[in-house]
Amino acid sequence: MPGYAVIGGQWGDEGKGKIIDFLAGRVDAVVRYGGGSNAGHTVVNDKGTFQLHMVPSGICWPGVAGIIGNGVVVDADVLLGELSELDTRGIDTSNLFVSERAHLIMPYHVLLDELEEKARGDSAIGTTGRGVGPAYVDKTGRMGIRVGDLLDIEGSLRPRLEQALAFKNALITKIYEAEALSIRDILDKCAEWAARLAPHIQATEQTVQDLLAQDKAVLLEGAQGTLLDIDHGSYPYVTSSSPSVGGACIGLGIPPQAIAGVVGVFKAYSTRVGGGPMPSEMLDAMGDELRETAHEYGTTTGRPRRVGWFDAVAAKYSRLVNGMTGLVLTRLDILDGFPSVKVCVGYRVNGQVIDRFPSNTSLLAQCQPIYEEHPGWSQPTASATSVSQLPEKAMSYVNRIEELVGCPVQIISTGPSREETIEVSRIIP
Ligand code: GDP
Ligand code: IMO
Ligand code: MG
Question: What is the value of pTM for the model shown?
Answer without folding.
Answer: 0.98
